Amino acid sequence: MYASGKYSSRGPALIPRMKTKHRIYYITLFSVVLLGLIATGMFQFWPHSIESTADWTLDKRSVHDAPLVRLTLSSPIPERGDLSCRMHTCFDVYRCGYNPKNKIKVYIYPLQRFVDEMGVPISSTGLSREYNDLLSAISDSDFYTDDVTRACLFIPSIDVLNQNSLRVRETAQALAILSRWDKGMNHLLFNMLPGGPPDYNTALDVPRDRVLLAGGGFSTWTYRQGYDVSIPVYSPLSADIDLPERQPGPRHYFILSSQTAIHREYRAELERLKEENGEALLLLDKCSNLSQGAASARKRCYKGQVYDYPQILQESSFCVVLRGARLGQAALSDVLQAGCVPVILADSYILPFSEVLDWKRASVVIPEEKLSEMYTILKSIPHRQVEEMQRQARWFWEAYFSSMKAIGLTTLQIINDRIYPYAARTYEQWNNPPVVKWTSVNSPLFLPLIPPRAPGFTAVVLTYDRVESLFRVITEISKVPSLAKLLVVWNNQNKSPPEESLWPKIGVPLKVVRTKENKLSNRFFPYDEIETEAVLAIDDDIIMLTSDELQFGYEVWREFPDRLVGYPGRLHLWDHEMGKWKYESEWTNEVSMVLTGAAFYHKYFNYLYTYKMPGDIKNWVDAHMNCEDIAMNFLVANITGKAPIKVTPRKKFKCPECTAIDGLSLDQTHMVERSECINKFASVFGTMPLKVVEHRADPVLYKDDFPEKLKSFPNIGSL
Amino acid sequence: MQAKKRYLILFSAGACLIMLFCLGGIQVPLSRRGSSQRDERSLTGYHSWARWRRFPGYLQRFSSWDQAWSDDHNEHISPRQKRDANTGVYSGRRCRMESCFDFTLCERNGFKVYVYPQQKGEKMSESYQNILLSIESSRFYTADPGQACLFVLSLDTLDRDQLSPQYVHSLRAKIPSLPLWNGGKNHIIFNLYSGTWPDYTEDLGFDIGFAMLAKASISTENFRPNFDVSIPLFSKDHPRTGGQRGYLKHNAIPPFRKYMLVFKGKRYLTGIGSDTRNALYHVHNSEDVVLLTTCKHGKDWQKHKDARCDKDNLEYDKYDYREMLYNSTFCLVPRGRRLGSFRFLEALQAACVPVMLSNGWELPFSEIINWNTAAVIGDERLLLQIPSTVRSIHQDKILSLRQQTQFLWEAYFNSVEKIVLTTLEIIQDRVLRHTSRSSLMWNSLPGGLFTLPHYSTYLGDFPFYYAKLGIKPYPKFTAIIHVVTPLVSQSQPVMKLLVAMAKSQYCAQVIVLWNCDKPLPAKYRWPVTSVPVVVIEGESKVISSRFLPYDTIPTEAVLSLDEDTVLSTTEVDFAFTVWQSFPDRIIGYPARSHFWDSNKERWGYTSKWTNDYSMVLTGAAIYHKYYHYLYTSYLPNSLKSMVDQMSNCEDILMNFLVSSVTKLPPIKVTQKKQYKETMMGQSSRASRWADPDHFAQRQTCMNKFASWFGTMPLVHSQMRLDPVLFKDQVSILRKKYRDIERL
Description:
The structure holds two protein chains of two kinds. By secondary structure, chain A is α/β, with parallel strands linked by helices.
């Protein structure tokens, strides 16, 4: 109001000589327009007000308010599903396109109520609670888009989870009139209970043309590998009952059968097994004295004794999941939730998410014909494997079965992985439970390679201003046969390196890199000048290493290219009194670190140190000017899970005359600081990755009574 | 003037109105206000319907309990009958193991493969001969069709291209008349080429009936999942055994090579499969993406040649294929006439990550290999995106893709034998479903052919997966002493040995393997020890029985000992701590070496003191129990019986086996060179070491083994492992392994 008043008062000044009649007309028009503009602007650019009003309408919104769509008798029916469909024939990949995030966009059709000509709905349940959960989970996820033109995948809001509650022909007609239907291209349908009596097809009977089907209970004949997605049959019990995770281990019963609708032939066979093996088996059935309904679904009986279901599943090591009329059974979900190992007897059944899940680690699949041998087969499985399977089963449930959200998003992720296979989730990501993900290591240099000797190694000398000592080191190292190049990292910004003519003349290229800042991490930078895989990091005062020792170190590195191979060994210890880690530089029987003052390692670790060091360790080291070697040891041990290798007995490196091992190491404050580093790094890594070993590497003929001339590495110092 | 102003105002008012409508698009419908009540409701609700959100309130469950229960009660047909009915319904192109394979044949004798006898006069390609030879020398082979579970024809079905000289005629008549054919049940048919110009169909030209296909270039449409096996296309020069190593020698950092993506090949001007290669020039940039095609193929290529041909041909001749292959990060593998091409294996071996551009090709061994870890699966339809896709792949990923190509190449592809064995193992895994390999066994080192699920289906029972599972082996070992001489005195070396081993803090059990012809001595004659001593009487008394996977071995680590071995408790303790760091290798004391004798053109064996070694003797060595199983089950009877007859070389064979699994050398610990009294010359007793033939035999063994493995698996090492303070100038009291110093 205020705005309009202000503007209208200005009006006359703008149009002074206009006739009053017209003037009033224009002024009114103008102010109306302006008012409208302002109002629209506020409406458009005030997102909060929109949301709040929408939220307000949300409560009022109900399924029954969805627009009604009347199907006519002559409305088209899609063709039956095409069994030869594959991603490259029935899926329009152009819709997904190249996408820097490698994520597909999913559109969900707005809810409509479909009725036939007579006004009878096409489905008896309409939108089910589960499908509602599924769609809202997808709409809350990163996959969702409400822009139909940007979508790669379309999900109809027509609920076909249970074929029994819908009218097949009419549902198909409803699908065909969807706005983007196009023969079902890029459409995804979720179905858990396919088929119906008497023959129970293993895939949804609704004609659906090229639709991608996420189905529970596919058989190998209806499942289009690489196109359809096999999903679990959701068990509504999961939502109601909270079964706490149980530690893996032996349980009271060995085998449990808790399904209620087992064919009498199979039940007879199970009874026979029970007779043979007695108490180890528990066969439960429906309780005859209870009326049907949700309450009776949670009880099972054996000879009048009542058991709580699904709690009883936790009392057994193995749980039988037999096929019924359908291949997919909701019991599988209950069994997994209980951490019981499913014994699946359903020939030709495609296990849920089998495209990505390794069911061999979580279940036992036995042909139906071998039901009678089940006991012997299960007995032959090692105990530790049973425990691993129990853990794995529970993890599968938690990650992929526990809710409609989990099922829906897993399905989308699988399709996503097919469209962007180079960015697909790995086997480990899909299959390793968190505890294994945390403790396991997948070394980035996993191939057992012994690289050829010929390329040699690049020595990287970090120096500040000790030119004399540096030149001595360079002269010594240049004698090593496999040296390929020498790189001096000049870390002093205030002083220029000596003139080229003053440097020692050596037989290999010598490069000097000047750094911008005096930082310790400069020594671990993956310089382009390093053209070899092997890097020798060496301090500018390590003058005592012989050429034989260095060459031998390189040979050992070739046998262990994924480890740190170094000369001075150190140890970390747990200080029980202080309750923390302690750094040890005494001569001990054990080694868990080698100092990078003289160590060979793979150039990959330079890259890791510079770009992938966890937390703030890199900056912390640069700030404290200490512990870069400990950080490197942590990094390598953490990613490879392997201990470093100390080579040769060498203990003294700097000056032959000194009585102490290293001048620096004896300093008490230095030791305290190094201990602090270990504690700091262990807390950043969240674990202590260092591995303690009791060996060091020596040449094969070291200290042997053998002519020195014939030894490859005769000059190995003993101090 | 006034009119002008009036128009101006009118115009600006109009502009404002248009702006208003543009900004407030939603208000357009408002102007239509006044239509029916119902209509308005759906229109105002438009926004909230477009974006999906949860519907509140009570909704029904998707299935009710009553329904779930009553459903299954409707079933009247016996499941058994239903299963049998499958056989009739699902045959031909719908064959699956459940409907077209007779499992009962495999139950009696396990997974045995029978090869039809070769008939005279039948021509057979070299490749097919290699396939048959590989089966016949495998442990699955049986000569008795009555024992067989799987049958392989001796009629060459590899090349079914009618225009090919290798084409075998009249198979249509010959195959069904074979006495054991049985409609093709439990047969497997190997095929590399099918169909011919111009359509290259996947028809073999005869009725395969119920038989399985092991076929190259098979399409997903024709591939029967879990029934057929997709094999790689291999050339006739592909070695039968052994096979070449991968090309990758080092993991360069950064992992980029000279070229990013390369391809060099023919371009088909007409007919099937020409589209993709015709379009490659769009992506070619002659810098780091070099995709070259030539039109020159066939006699009449000039008839069809198009405007690009001359330019393409010129560019094509500028580059060398090998040079590109070895210097490129990625290699394009586009479809040719058929879906698969030789280029796939070539790229794999060259550690050039294959970029697949062959829609609908069921990749080789897709049932078990997760190709996403070793290749980039592209889509022909998105050719233009390929360069940006490969450039977006992270360095770490390239590093791992590249290593995986090498692992897969060496594990499953580098020889005809590996391809055939992988095919058979895949089928065996289907037949014995509850003892089959998990995906991890197939896709990580050392690969499925070396991890036999009959040993255990638990990953933690193998020496290869400790790190992957984040677990450690059980920290104890079992000592197995191989005894061949009767027990005469209590001061015999074996007694001392037994006591010393039992004293080790890591010893869980001592097993005495009684391979002596004399009867077992009474129980009381064995020394009393703190750990259990189990005496096993060898049944066959042959030397290979020391490597049997006895159930009585409770630990993963096995310490193998000869009866006259001299070993102290300290030495064993140290070796065991080393083994815990290297559970997949053999850890031993005295070492031996092999070398290539270029004068005699054969492998030589030496026990001289050398600067390197490639074997450690198993008369005193620690290794994983699984190698017992592998020795017994994986190695062919021919080698094992050779060892048994000579009572020699069992240690060499074990070293061959373990090195072929790990591709790494064994580990020698401590200075120890001799480990027997006889070796030290303190005993006059005749020993096999004193036998002059002994050494010559070992030489022969080396060459026999190398020829069976098809390659020399042994690897040299130049280092040994000693205790950290070994021979250090510190007080002996500070040293944990003091005894080792004294030797």
